[in-house]
Amino acid sequence: MQNNRYPSYDCVCRKRCRFVEKRMFNYVGMHLAIMKDIKHAVTLRRIGGTYMHWDWKGVLQPIGLFVNSDMTVKNVFALLKENESEVGFVLEDEEIIGYVTTTSLLDQLMEEGDPNRRIQPEKDFLFVREEDAAKHIHNCSLVIGADIFQQPTGYVFMDRLDQYLSEVQLKSFNDALNSAEMGIVTMNPSFQVIFMNEKAEQILGMKKSIIQGRDYRRLIRMDTSFDEVLRGQKWFGIENTFNFKVISGQFSPIYENGKITGIIHNFYLKDQLEEAVHEIDFVREMNEDLQAIYSLSNEQILVTDHNGTITRVAGAYFNNFWGDIEHDELIGMNAADLESSGIFQPNIIAACMKKNSRVMLTQKGKNGTVLSTATPVMEDGKIKRIIVLSKDVSTDDKSFARAEDATEFHNETVIYRSAEMSMLMDEVKSVAPLDSTVLVTGESGVGKEVVARSIHQLSSRSSGSFVAINCGAIPEHLIESELFGHEKGAFTGADSKRVGLFEQGHEGTVFLDEVSELPFAMQVKLLRVLQEREVIRVGSTVPIKINVRVIAATNKNLRQMVQKNQFREDLFYRLHVVPIQIPALRNRKDDISPLAVSFLEELNDRNGYEKKISTNALNLLESYQWPGNIRELRNVIERLIVISREDEISEKDVYRVLWETDSKEQGFLTIKGIIPLKKAVEETEKQLIELAVEKYGTATDAAKALETSISTVSRRMKRFNDERMPGGASHDLLL
């Protein structure tokens, strides 16, 4: 057995571990004696492959027959037949050195032709500890289990193990479905029932033997069409009647290899559903199947036991945060081990255990950052489990150095996570190396200057100056001298020679912000500068050659201004060489949380605060329309830091800042004439919800006061807000 080695695994240290490279002679006890380092011994099981919950002991068959190595093929074959054994274990000096089967003996007989020849044992076997997790092992046909006394207890062929594990997994899956607290019925594309769990039998009051194979459409009453589910639709909150029982649940398509192969119906009794009390905060719709909620969520849900061992991972999975660890590998890992291995820091689970209450922290992972809230679930005064809700606030940020001659603070970091900004930054990277004129457009406050600086820093002119000019802020009578400079005595007050901003930008970049505000006469002179690449100072006739790249920006539609003769057409085409449109913040909501957290950290550092912001507060920020874009968001964060009386900025604080309107001055609905009844109901509903939220501060408390569901209040408020943006009524309704 000299060639047998313990299977090679990667330890938590991410390198070949000296503990698991030891040869495994005889029984596994030799290796157990070596593995004194508990960290490595424990990690061997957790990191060395998919975590399994079935040990070898449960799959081993008893060892029935031992044979000596000097026995003949004929004698051993007879012993196997006599004892009805499929395998004989070959001993030499009281040690197992291999095994033989009737098949291997017949092969030897055919090859050698001599039944009196000594047996040649098979060597492709391995010893394992019977209490270890069972798993497939490559390059091995048979496994022998050993107990804590190093004695062999049983064996299993690898092909049978694979079949057994598949059966156990299937049984475990069925047990899980039968243990679910919701009814589950699955149908094939012909709507025939192919499975129903025990809870479904209990709710419907009929055995599955009666329902299986029948057309489900004929069993329940429903207003929606099953055909739409087969086309990929999901139906939530659907009420049906079965045997005079009202059930509520969802219908979802079942996919296999990208194709719809059936329908799954998850449901509760309506009465039970209405009485159900949710144990955790993040379940937003009581009648949605957990899997559907998780798949739609952009938040990561982590559940640990009272020791910090991860028992469930659901919702979004942040690969950049966890690094090389796969989703399934997290199950069974301990948060303390992950922290000590450098996977993340700090350990919010440990902080929650220590504080014995809710904790919120920003955690740094391998390549990402999350804002996490850990909430303990208590039982008899002790922590039963901990639920961690995490929001990805990582950014695909690219930092650029500040211009040396900047006269005021500018943040050169482009913070984004949305697909829209990712595409835009790819465009910036492709445009930057060129020397073409760029026209950056977008609403006020979207970050046009930040994008312009990014282009400059990524270009070959990055070592030169970046000169930013706000064309709308310079008085009309001074704009020419500011841009192009002037000679001494050129006009009253010109006591000395002045170098213009274009000359200051020589070998660098000139950024013309609000270029649409240039006077018409000045547009002609700017056009000449762009064409001739030279400026003439006021009071001079000598042209000065300049080498600058021009980036212009505006929040107006220059093409429409050209049509209205408010902007020169030739200048427009000179500027409109490479257009870049920055989307409004409301159209890239994935960027709101990273920006908010970044502004919070910046303002904390500047003012010496240690403020945090809750996940619910971030969710409320994401629901707002942000007419002022990033500039407004930064101002709101600064106001929140000032007005928040607690260390953590809450949902209520955000609501106070974003909804400071004249709603108090607007009286309740006054009927002055005939209006459509539907419109009157909607207006009354709107005012009731607005008053309730204003009074109680959160949608949750408002829903209780109005005796309706949180989801109803949230949807109505979202709709009211959408109707008002942009250019709507006098105030914004949030959430």
SSE order and pairing:
Layout: H1 29-34, H2 38-47, E1 66-68, H3 73-83, E2 87-92, E3 95-101, H4 102-112, E4 125-129, E5 142-146, E6 152-157, H5 158-179, E7 183-187, E8 193-196, H6 198-204, H7 208-211, H8 226-230, E9 235-242, E10 245-256, E11 259-269, H9 270-275, H10 290-296, E12 299-305, E13 310-315, H11 319-322, H12 335-340, H13 348-355, E14 359-364, E15 369-379, E16 382-392, H14 419-431, E17 438-441, H15 448-457, E18 466-470, H16 479-484, E19 485-486, E20 498-499, H17 501-504, E21 509-513, H18 520-532, E22 534-536, E23 543-545, E24 549-554, H19 558-563, H20 569-575, E25 578-581, H21 592-607, E26 612-613, H22 615-623, H23 629-643, E27 648-649, H24 651-658, H25 677-696, H26 699-706, H27 710-724
Parallel strand pairs: 1-2, 4-5, 17-24, 17-25, 18-21, 21-24, 26-27
Antiparallel strand pairs: 2-3, 5-6, 7-8, 7-11, 9-10, 10-11, 12-13, 12-16, 14-15, 15-16, 19-20, 22-23
Helix pairs in contact: 3-4, 21-23, 22-24, 23-24, 25-26, 26-27
Describe this structure in words.
There is one protein chain. The protein has 735 residues and is an alpha/beta fold. Helix 22 (615-623) packs parallel to helix 24. It has 6 domains: 29-165, CBS-domain (Roll); 180-276, PAS domain (Beta-Lactamase, 2-Layer Sandwich); 292-392, PAS domain (Beta-Lactamase); 419-583, Rossmann fold (3-Layer(aba) Sandwich); 586-658, Helicase, Ruva Protein, domain 3 (Orthogonal Bundle); 663-724, Arc Repressor Mutant, subunit A (Orthogonal Bundle). It contains 27 helices and 27 strands. The longest helix is centred in the N-terminal third of the chain and has 22 residues, at 158-179. Strands 8-7-11-10-9 form a 5-stranded antiparallel sheet. It has a 5-stranded antiparallel sheet with strand order 13-12-16-15-14. The chain has a 5-stranded parallel sheet with strand order 18-21-24-17-25. 29% of the residues are buried. GO terms for molecular function: ATP binding; DNA binding. It comes from Siminovitchia acidinfaciens. Residues 169-214 form the PAS domain. One of its GO terms (biological process) is regulation of DNA-templated transcription. Residues 414-642 form the Sigma-54 factor interaction domain.
